[in-house]
Amino acid sequence: MRLGLYILASIILMAMVGIFIYTFNPNEYSHNFYGVYVTLPVALWVIMPMFLLMVASVIHMMFYGTKNFFRFKKWEKDSNNLNNALYWSLLNEPKAHKFNLPRLKESASLLQVSNLKVNGTVDGVSEKIQSALNIISEIDKGECVNFKEKKLAKVLSDDNPLVIKNHLNCLDKDEPFIEEVLQQKDKYDKEVFNKALHKFSNSATFFKARKYSKVFNRESFITLIGRVTRDNDLGLTQSILDEFINDLSGELKCSDFLFVANITKKQLSPDENLKLFKGYDAKYPKAQTAYLYLLFDYEMIEKAGDYLDEHDADEFIRFRALYDLKKEHKKYKITDLMNIKHICNDV
After folding, report:
1. Does 339 have pLDDT greater than 70?
2. pTM higher than 0.85, yes or no?
């Protein structure tokens, strides 16, 4: 019962009882309270205990009402905290939340260190939790979610699995995002960067890729240069090639230099190509085989012999055997006697 209604009902009851008694006995009655005589109508003496009971009841209800009010506030606050804890755990970003009720604290504190995964659809959840479920659903479908619009960009950590998966989705949906990842390599997960570099090397020209040469790796460089054809050089020039080779010299293998040599054969004259790889031969030990290969391929047998004489007898064994054979049978080509894939002994 509401407090105001209770007080009103009590007053009406006391008035009815008082009037009823007064009609039977309108006389007064005096009582000595420690030497003080109090004289009141009999009706008032009768309803006085009722009034005291009402006051005591009101005080009782106010006390427990106040107590329940604060307890409800704790429940309400804990309910909001639980809702927030579930929200962040769904987004794989668990956060610490303070709970007031001991029973709830015993179990809900687990959410501070837990990531939740939902299988299937859920109905009847709060609007906030539903927003988290919608984000997860969109990412699982391969959509690119704009975390800035949802005010989550500065809240979710870079190593959050949802963030990483969303970045991978964005690489497929948003082409400018690819270069954004390349420009801020340290900001993104390694898997995201590798995918961005792979997609970029499969579509970019050397003109465009030149400014990212320092973030290229061996695999992406081979992919990029492997797209060069006789009809489309992708903007490849000797100066750009020199930049890539210099930046990747520590990663490139003997077979990579051979691969590049066969690509540049499509774009450069024999003299230009030999000059280019003679320079690489002097700077990069793993380019020696590629230079020697070009000498044989261009039928520069005497220069190949001079090059072999400049090195120890236990080096370039296969080429030495080929050199001896070529001196006797000039009609043979290097490709007839040697598989380019097996020339190098990459470790």
Report:
1. no
2. no
Whether 328 shows a pLDDT value over 80: the answer reads no
Is 41 strand, coil or helix? strand
| Separation of alpha carbons 245 and 142, rounded Å | 36
* DSSP per residue, 150-163: TT-TTTS-TT-HHH
Q: How confident is the model at residue 225 (pLDDT cuts 50, 70, 90)?
A: very high
Q: Give the CA diameter of the chain.
A: 152
Q: What is the reported pLDDT for 209?
A: 95
Amino acid at 339: N
Residue 201's Cβ-side half-sphere holds a number of Cα atoms within 13 Å equal to 21
Query: Is-contact 165 139, C-beta < 8 A?
Result: yes
The per-residue pLDDT for range 188-206, each reduced to its tens digit, is 999 999 999 999 999 999 9
Q: State the Rg of the chain over Cα.
A: 44
Element (H, E) at 37: strand 36-41
For the record, the structure tokens of 318 come out as: 């296969």
CA distance 211 to 249: 17
pLDDT for residue 74: 74
Q: 144: Cβ–Cβ under 8 A, 6 or more apart, which residues?
A: 166, 169, 170, 172, 173, 174, 177
Q: How far is CA 294 from the centre of its chain?
A: 47
Helix-helix angle 254-264:238-248, to 10 degrees = 170
pLDDT of residue 1 exceeding 70 = no
* Contact residues for 90 (Cβ-Cβ < 8 A; gap 6+): 116, 118, 129, 132, 133, 136
Q: From CA 307, how far away is CA 127, in angstroms rounded?
A: 76
Neighbouring CB atoms inside 10 A of 328's CB total 7
Give residues with Cβ within 8 angstroms of 31, minimum separation 6: 37, 38, 45
Tell me the per-residue pLDDT of 68-95, one tens digit each, with 9 for 90 and over: 767 777 777 878 888 888 988 999 988 8
Please choose, from the candidates 346, 244, 269, the residue with its C-alpha nearest in 3D space to the C-alpha of residue 260: 244
